[in-house]
Design goal:
Distance between the termini: 34 Å
Number of domains: 2
Radius of gyration: 20 Å
Number of helices: 8
Helix content: over 70%
Structural class: mainly alpha
Shape: globular
């Protein structure tokens, strides 16, 4: 096969991938709109349609990720284009697994589908889909473990955040209709705490494995790089959140605030530091992820 034929084949396959990715983003958007109508009407049929739609969309998204893996010949989470797709996929998968415990509780799925849609659109509209070779900094046995575990932690925190926001919305705006959404008000903090309790050690492992990876790549475990610093801030906020169980006066609004703050810090770790480093000209050894 000539080089021209290879380029034509790669362009054709990339075109197919982009069309499927746009379909995935559109379907997440449809799920989100279905969820909005569910919230406004409290009709369980719409809630079930939301969950069924997420299952269908994540199945197509899974096939897309497998396709990208085969096409690139490597794990599909090297560039920001790829990691945004991986982030949305892992968040929805995690939500659907957790949802099996909730049965008729669909409200958090509205927020999860909105976040997934936003991540996919951000990837499609602002990032290049080009498949590039793995840079030397990523060629480490720690690479896959670090990224997979980190994004699993992120996915758990997305679901925890979604349940927390659901609790706040039901408590303040939809309290008179809360029973129609399937989960008693007192159940929300119990679920968010269990989720963070599961995600917290995953985040800790991601930080430690990242340090081991940094030592392999750059000869030092920790350099106070912006992304490293924000990962430590995120870990600290979630540690404070977990301590709210031991401090009675923190178990209400303070716990909710820390859970939401932890999510914001997690987004800063994942995306925000990339923007700040580029905007302010801050040197970062994680610049390959921008």
């Amino acid at each position: 096969m000539t080089s021209e034929e290879i380029l034509l084949r790669d362009a054709f396959l990339l075109g197919i991938e982009l069309k499927v990715f746009w379909l995935v983003a559109l379907l997440y958007g449809v799920c989100f709109l279905t969820g909005v109508f569910y919230v406004l009407s409290a009709r369980q049929s719409l809630g079930r349609a939301l969950t069924a739609g997420l299952w269908l969309t994540v199945l197509i998204h899974t096939l897309l990720i497998v396709f990208r893996t085969v096409e690139g010949g490597r794990p599909p989470f090297q560039t920001l284009y790829e990691t945004l797709s991986w982030f949305s996929w892992s968040a929805v998968i995690t939500y659907l697994i957790v949802h099996n415990k909730w049965k008729e509780v669909h409200f958090p799925g509205v927020i999860v589908s909105g976040i997934a849609m936003g991540a996919c659109l951000y990837s499609l509209l602002t990032r290049s889909p080009e498949i590039i070779p793995i840079p030397p900094a990523l060629q480490s046995p720690w690479y896959e473990w670090h990224v997979i575990v980190a994004f699993l932690a992120y996915a758990v925190f997305v679901v925890s955040f979604s349940v927390e926001v659901t609790h706040i919305l039901l408590e303040r705006w939809f309290r008179f209709r809360a029973p129609a959404f399937g989960l008693p008000m007192e159940g929300f903090h119990r679920y968010t705490h269990r989720l963070v309790l599961f995600g917290f050690p995953l985040l800790a492992f991601a930080i430690f494995s990242g340090a081991a990876w940094a030592n392999d790549a750059w000869g030092r475990y920790w350099s106070w790089d912006p992304k490293e610093t924000w990962s430590l801030i995120t870990w600290t906020v979630y540690a404070m959140y977990l301590h709210t169980k031991a401090i009675p006066r923190w178990q209400g609004k303070v716990a909710s605030f820390l859970n939401i703050l932890g999510f914001i810090c997690m987004i800063m770790t994942f995306l925000g530091v990339n923007w700040l480093a580029k905007l302010l000209g801050i040197p970062s050894i994680h610049a390959y992820a921008v």
